[in-house]
């Protein structure tokens, strides 16, 4: 917000392209008077301020309050970033490849971001997903409001079938042309902070709309990589997302309808001009070359873009234009609706559990529309419907009604599981001081008869998002079916110093898609050696605690078990495990990216001992953050290095227990640049085994 009237007037004159002399003539004052206002030597009277506002085409209240004026739809345009002079090219936003391209992942990442931005005070954040299918007149009106004519030529130029992102764009354009159907997905949150902060300097708005891999999150928040927002753009066939935010704190003297748009394209050329790829939708910034800033919109513009919010509570609405399920599993509106419901319920059931005196952290719903009419009514997600046993366990803990022994089908057993907290690097704590310990809470309750996946343990921390749900193995014979929940960090609702330390540790141990607690680069960089083992031991201890809790009680009847001869006859020994031959495995791999952007690897293979040699057909994959792999080709034939030889079919024949080979990946088959990837090599048996 400008400090005085002179700054406000100077900025508006520059934005409107109006000279001081022109303003003086339009309000019937001398140029010297306007010059004095612009330079802060004097200020106009109220009636002149109203005249100045009218001449500049803004509301009088904007001039009186010295706030940035709202923008009309006629002022909006798309501005594309020019390609760098050094000839560098980006084939798209690499962050979009960190996740599987499906709606369940979008629901998980978007809802987690909403929970992270929940306002303090105890009220739940409201997360709402609205699908809207447009055809005919409704589609034409939306594309007109979006300035589709300004971006369509860029989309066609970037739709290169030889590139991964280009193929998705081409498919989206062809689908739109063939069906004249477009699906919008709006993700609303309320009782959240909103996109606060300036347009360019550090703040929530810049981190979401302008930057990549910039999280800004800390403490008990879920995200740490700045990748979650990329799931929104990845869910659009065109890489296009619009935003409308109601702020929890003012920016430029305003709170409502802070609007902007971002289009994520790869490098492309249009009419002999090269563009880096990204573009922004907004008002041209007179102070920055080829830049568009956010604008303060009106109701009509928000409605035309399907972004008008029906509640004044702070938060943000994201509109994914051309929403689709990249996995191909869902195409119809009703299927997409079900997938979103499933994604939210599966990952956030615990966040939606309400206690007798504790409000839920989250309320979520999904609605579907067709051309302005309801196709599927709002479906509010009830955690007890989707996860009855586990929701019962969390509610019992919130209400303080856990027990120390399971006697009925409704009981919830609570016990503690210690998490050893390793030392941070650079810590001043003496090596002889024992590390602190955090007591997590393990909840166990009997599973219902209709549970589809009993005997699982779910891990969660602050926001109670399910980090991982895992089946517990090696359970006692004849055990009662159960569900278990492990609450760690702030999810324990404790207010002790170890809680913050546990959150810090577990947050560092989560990979980008937050689906486990394991060893990560962040954990290695921040903690002393042994941190990963602390995490491993913690999870093992939790599972072992489940097994022990399910063991039959020793009720003192051991002396009445009958004669020893009879006990020997009835003894049940476990069957002996069958020996398996085993398969070849990767023992070690070394590699680097060469000057041609190809991966060069040297691989050591460990083979089980047998009389016949092993004939293997090594494969290489580019790995996504969700664990999925995209196969790529080898460039030419593999090179035997030790204890192996090349067959006529191009496979490798191994003699002995260990063999070494090397290979180079084919750059033409890479889905993304090699420097942006990690790879996996596997050694399946060859289909043809000619020696």
Number of extended strands: 27
Low-confidence runs: 555-562, 564-571, 576-580
Gyration radius, to the nearest Å? 30 Å
Structural class: alpha+beta
Strand percentage lies at 25-35%
Provide the helix percentage: 25-40%
Please work out how many helical segments DSSP would assign: 19
First-to-last CA distance? 77 Å
Main pleated-sheet profile: 12 strands, mixed
Structure description:
27% of the residues lie in helices and 25% in strands. It contains 19 helices and 27 strands. Strands 1, 2, 3, 4, 5, 6, 7, 8, 9, 10, 11 and 12 form a twelve-stranded mixed β-sheet that branches. The chain has a five-stranded mixed β-sheet with strand order 13-14-17-15-16, sandwiched between helices. The longest helix is centred in the C-terminal third of the chain and has 20 residues. A hairpin with a 5-residue loop joins strand 18 and strand 19. By secondary structure, it is α+β, with helices and mostly antiparallel strands. The chain starts with a helix and ends in a 9-residue tail after the last strand.
């Amino acid at each position: 917000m400008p400090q005085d009237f002179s700054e406000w007037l100077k900025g508006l004159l520059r934005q409107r392209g109006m000279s001081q002399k022109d303003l003086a003539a339009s309000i019937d004052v001398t140029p010297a008077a306007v010059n004095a206002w612009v330079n802060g030597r004097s200020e106009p009277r109220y009636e002149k301020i109203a005249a100045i506002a009218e001449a500049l085409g803004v509301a009088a209240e904007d001039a009186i309050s010295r706030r940035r004026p709202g923008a009309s739809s006629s002022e909006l345009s798309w501005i594309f970033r020019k390609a760098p002079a050094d000839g560098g090219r980006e084939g798209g936003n690499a962050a979009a490849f960190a996740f599987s391209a499906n709606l369940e992942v979008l629901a998980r990442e978007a809802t987690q971001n909403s929970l992270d931005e929940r306002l303090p005070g105890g009220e739940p954040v409201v997360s709402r997903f609205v699908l809207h299918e447009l055809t005919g007149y409704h589609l034409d009106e939306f594309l007109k409001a979006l300035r589709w004519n300004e971006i369509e030529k860029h989309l066609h130029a970037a739709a290169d079938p030889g590139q991964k992102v280009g193929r998705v764009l081409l498919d989206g354009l062809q689908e739109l042309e063939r069906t004249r159907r477009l699906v919008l997905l709006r993700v609303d949150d309320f009782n959240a902070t909103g996109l606060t902060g300036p347009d360019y300097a550090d703040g929530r708005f810049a981190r979401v709309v302008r930057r990549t891999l910039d999280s800004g999150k800390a403490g008990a928040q879920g995200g740490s990589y700045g990748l979650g927002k990329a799931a929104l753009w990845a869910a659009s066939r065109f890489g296009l997302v619009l935003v409308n935010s109601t702020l929890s704190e003012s920016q430029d003297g305003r709170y409502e309808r802070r609007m902007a748009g971002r289009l994520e394209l790869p490098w492309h050329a249009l009419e002999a001009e090269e563009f880096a790829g990204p573009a922004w939708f907004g008002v041209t910034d007179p102070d920055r070359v080829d830049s568009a800033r956010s604008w303060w919109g009106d109701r009509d513009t928000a409605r035309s873009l399907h972004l008008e919010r029906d509640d004044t509570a702070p938060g943000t609405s994201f509109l994914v234009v051309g929403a689709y399920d990249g996995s191909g599993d869902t195409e119809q509106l009703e299927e997409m609706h079900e997938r979103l419901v499933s994604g939210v319920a599966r990952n956030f059931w615990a966040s939606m559990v309400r206690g007798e005196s504790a409000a839920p952290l989250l309320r979520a719903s999904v609605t579907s529309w067709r051309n302005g009419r309801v196709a599927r009514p709002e479906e509010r997600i009830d955690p007890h419907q989707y996860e009855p046993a586990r929701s019962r366990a969390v509610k019992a803990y919130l209400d303080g009604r856990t027990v120390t022994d399971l006697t009925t089908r409704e009981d919830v057993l609570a016990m503690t599981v210690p998490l050893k907290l390793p030392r941070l690097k650079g810590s001043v704590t003496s090596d002889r001081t024992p590390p602190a310990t955090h007591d997590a809470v393990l909840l166990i309750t009997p599973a219902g008869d209709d549970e589809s996946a009993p005997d699982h343990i779910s891990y969660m921390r602050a926001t109670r998002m399910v980090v991982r749900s895992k089946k517990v193995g090696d359970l006692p014979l004849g055990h009662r079916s159960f569900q278990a929940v492990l609450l760690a960090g702030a999810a324990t609702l404790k207010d002790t110093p170890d809680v913050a330390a546990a959150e810090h540790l577990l947050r560092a141990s989560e990979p980008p898609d937050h689906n486990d607690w394991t060893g990560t680069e962040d954990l290695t960089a921040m903690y002393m050696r042994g941190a990963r083992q602390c995490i491993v031991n913690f999870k093992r201890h939790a599972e072992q605690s489940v097994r022990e809790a399910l063991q039959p009680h020793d009720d003192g009847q051991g002396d009445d078990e009958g004669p020893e001869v009879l006990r020997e006859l009835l003894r049940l020994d476990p069957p002996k495990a069958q020996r398996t031959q085993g398969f070849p495995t990767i023992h070690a791999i070394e590699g680097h990216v060469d000057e041609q952007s190809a991966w060069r690897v040297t691989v050591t293979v460990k083979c089980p001992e047998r009389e016949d040699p092993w004939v293997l057909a090594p494969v290489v994959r580019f790995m996504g953050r969700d664990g999925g792999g995209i196969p790529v080709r080898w460039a030419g034939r593999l090179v035997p290095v030790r204890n192996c030889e090349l067959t006529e079919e191009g496979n490798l024949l191994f003699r002995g227990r260990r063999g070494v080979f090397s290979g180079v990946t084919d750059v033409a088959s890479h889905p993304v640049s090699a420097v942006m990837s990690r790879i996996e090599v596997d050694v399946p048996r060859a289909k043809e085994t000619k020696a």
